[in-house]
Amino acid sequence: MSDTPESQSAGRGSGGRKVEVLDDVIIRFAGDSGDGMQLTGTQFTNTSALQGNDLATFPDYPAEIRAPAGTLAGVSGFQVHFSSRDILTPGDSPTVLVAMNPAALKTNLGALRPGAMIIANTDKFKKRDLEKAEYASNPLEDGSLEGFQVVPVPISSLTRRAVEPFGLTPKQADRCKNFFALGMTYWLFHRDLEPTEKWVRGKFKEPFSSANLAALQAGWNYADTLEIFHSSYEVPPAKLPPGTYRNITGNHALALGFATAGKLAGRTLYLGAYPITPASDVLHHLARLKALDVITFQAEDEIAAMASTVGASYGGALAVTATSGPGLALKSEALGLALISELPLVVVDVQRGGPSTGLPTKTEQSDGVAVKFMTPVILLSDGYLANGAEPWRLPDLDALEPIEAHVPTDPEGFRPYDRDPETLARPWAVPGMAGFEHRIGGLEKEDGTGNVSYDPDNHERMTRLRAEKVQRVQRVIPPVEVHGDDDGPLLVTWGGTFGAVRAAVDKARRSGLRAAHVHLRWLNPFPANLGEVLRERTARGTPVVVAELNTGQLAAILRARYEVPLQTMNKIAGQPFRVSEVLARIQTLASTEEATR
Amino acid sequence: MIQQAHALTKKDFMSDQTVRWCPGCGDYAILSQVQTVMAESGIPKEQFAVVSGIGCSSRFPYYLSTYGYHTIHGRAPAVATGLKIANPDLNVWVITGDGDALSIGGNHLIHVLRRNVDMQILLFNNRIYGLTKGQYSPTSEAGKLTKSSPMGSIEHPFIPCATALGADATFVARTVDIFVKEQREVLRAAVAHKGAAFVEILQNCVIFNDGAWKDLTERKLRDEHVIFVEHGQPMIFGPKNGPKKGLRLDQCTTLEVVELSENPTLAEMVAKQILVHDETNAVLANMLARMQPPFPVAMGVLYRVEKSTYEREAHAQVARAKERPGAADLQAVLHGRETWTVE
Ligand code: SF4
Question: Could you tell me how many CB contacts below 8 A there are between chain A and chain B?
Fold first, then answer.
């Protein structure tokens, strides 16, 4: 069931059946929005993390919260990629699909790997269910799933029987079925039941706690007793760098990063936000961290969220706002105010498109730059990072640099726009500091004094100063690192495409091709050595490909900035790059290069 | 709040910037009163932060020697909210106008009032867009002829105090730019109020809407057209020397004006059922706010109640959250509930 060469037979296991060792598995739980698939996937993820696998997840739920039950629009899925190796993406094609109803099967079938296992809840493949999923005949019986390993299990009725002793209504009993499914997959992949049992006990009241536990155990027993699976599979722990790890989503990591930054700066961490998917979890997580001197303000709209963040920064807090696409558009007005007022703050844009992994675990760096240079910073994340979970090695808090602000101490001769000669940052004198009273605003200011000025020369000077200040951020950001070979195609990425492209480059190199990858973490300014890296390669005629999930915005900027010939690889389907399609591009480039040599 | 060591004077609150409003603009009188009230409050200068939006009135912060932030159109309440949360010890003022507060910033205004963030919000109402040179505003009267309404405005105006009451403001007052003494009283009360204090100041724009309030401000008309209300006092008005009038409720629980003698006694007022102002009565405040000619326009503190303030509650939650064992331990929070170690 795995195409990885590392898979091997490893004797007999529970139930007397064969145990195979796998390197890499992608499992997808899919069902109706009400079937608890997100919970199931999260439990599988956490348990796998505790067993030491490297992993990446991809939760995928309908935009409509209450799409009609059983329909294609109502399918909710959660994909977990877990491995004994370092992995970079939630995976292209699942090897196992748990389908709680026909709609779940239909919407996910196309993505499955040939030969994949499909565990189907046969109780939900009745005539009505098939109609809702627009199936003319039952796919479990009509031979259309030939080539897959179909495991039909009456999950609903088995669950109902398992929870009988607890006196639940039929509806309540049915809601335990995701734990039955989870129990089966735990048997299949040698997962430990304990962490989930512990979680269930803490999460549910009686009788639901006992009922869910019974369903979980029943699922495990069912798989163990009946010969529905030919083998079970072990995925050994990954060889991750030493350290203490936890499992974490991108949004949660952002929240912890900001709270840490607040501590490093010795200031209140302020978040002004307006609810918007997929950024709201940043607000939810920070709202629970008040004990770390975090204050969250749920504003009346995106504009107020941004404006209040500017106000909080003006008041001396470490100020942050978090939003997504349309929210960022609404924030641009007050962001402009922050820019001309030269106040430090961070705007998180959790982009809705744009995919994959590479956790923003160094969030506090953005605060550091904001404060050091007295400038707003935009931090880009995306929906996949935001909701996807990965193991995260906990940082050593003592090794983190404090975030130091340029706070003036001598009121004598103080001027609000006198700049630090190194960073060009202006001083951060906040209301309440005696002797530093001053007025600022959105109008152009006289260099130094900050008084309103309509002088044309002054305006030009101030505009250049503000731009130069941002350029000087280059001095503190790391140079780009070229991952891979000196020759062969170089792929350039930014944001969430990191995982797929890095995985494809590595795969290409393992197959004997030469390739390299540069991932940009800073987009304005670019790292100081980027121009040199691009020019050096293009001058030699080595192809440089900018891969991005849009029509080529980064490529356009790079061409304009560095005047180098670049190729592009674009995808605008609202879907991540697949490792396979990036690999195909590398192979094509390698063969043309070979031919022209 | 920290008290100032040596007494400050109005002069201490003047900035070095030349005031650039049109000569005769009502804003001058308001600036003078604000400086006076700030000086006499005993609050140190550095504790004042004055935030404004866009419009003629919004140049205000440049003319005060306190901290000041001239922000963007309509957003001052939101900026001020973030500021007050970041530093609850500050004495925050928002200076805004009828266009700034009620048009582009309407949403921010109602929410800052509802949340009761502790600050003074002064709305200079000149019933016109001045900075953009004379379009009708959300408080312009129906039929108003302006550059953008050459056939007359077809909109129904806001009554700012009624809007504020509708937004559940905890302090609502009205005054006039040139009513020096009364304005000062209202501003003092606003500073003393813990919560969002909304003050509508009727202001004359000599250039684009001169005489907008002359029915209320002209000496001869003032006595008939204005009533100053005070908590616990009977609501009467009229010329100093001459018969007075009072307010009472008719059967349909709407207000009506009743004739009184020149020096009405308590007995006379009781007999004629003259109302006594109760600033904690929201229904009464709403009726007072909505009085328009031929009724007298109500001035003074129309409504005032105590409610918890947003910034205090926010900081109280931080303090409460810290009481939970381990909650304030960053290392523990980073670790979460489940970790594993790779050797
Ligand atoms: S235009 Fe009107 S409101 Fe503006 S400064 Fe002149 S008089 Fe005052």
Answer: 218
